[in-house]
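Q: Sequence in, structure out?
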Amino acid sequence: MKKYMMILVSINLLLVGCQSGGNTPSPNVNTFYFGEDLVFIEDDVITIDLENSSAIVKEKHATLRTILTDEEVLHDIAAMTTTTANILSQIGIQVTAAPESEALSPSLTMEQYVLGSSQPIDKTKVLNVGSALSPNVEAIMELDPKIVLYSDAMPHGEYMDILHASGINLQPLGQSDYLDMFVLLDVIGGIYNHQNEQINTIFKEMTDTLKSVQELLDVKVDQVQPTVAILQVAGDTIIANNEETVLGTIVTALGVNNVFKNNGNGEVNKEEILAANPDYIIYYTHGNGQASLTQFHEVLYDENGVYRELQAVKNKQAFPVASDDFIFAASVDLDIVKVISYLAKGFYE
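A: Exactly. Output:
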């Protein structure tokens, strides 16, 4: 069915000639899809086909395009969260401010300065705004950037109200859905009229990964849909992720049935996990929680433990969402494509 849909999409594109950014694709244009949300056009560069992608992709794209309007804005962004600053830096957008954090990329840390009597505003460097939870609002107002961005996965902070009241252009950047990273690259690529080679290269690398994942899914399309429990662990506390979480949307795109998809994203007990008895269990923790991951692994695979009869445990199909290349900690960045590939291989190879 999906292959049939892809043929229809390709025919429609050739007839209608619609492309993200408003350019008409050449006769040699190719299209490819991922899951039910994303359709891409591959011509001289790769772009999102907004005509045939899902409504949520269209909405995210339109919203971000009203926030990031032109190159002038892109060159004067203050980032209020570390992940936001790191993402923009990776794609070649030099932020003018960022929080102080060990998680900030070394290149940004080297450029950071603290505003003081002997250090005036310098938008060629990176203003240190202090804690991401309680930043130096006076310094931000003195910097007066074109836009201040924070992750939409970040809880509301009192400083946000102060900045809004002062007239600062404070906006959320989507980082709570894997789709957000592809929309971000497509929007910024469009602002540069798809002439920014760094962004084009990153976008191609990420979409090439999605292509290989989709090819794997197409081979498995006629097989029985596997089931999974997505668990966030913190000591003895276990929280089940529903279908609206980052990993929930990813497993859905991968054709895997989340046994807790209708859960209120709340705590679950051992009895509920045993009753669900999923084919797979994937688990993660917030921040640098390797100890929590190790502890949960030991509990799961205890030969005399309560989970020993689970299908996922018996078949050794319970694993953390982490590898040498990444550690998933609920926030979305450009490494999300590695998470998608890792999970697809875990489920289907």
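Confidence is low (pLDDT under 50) at residues 1-27.
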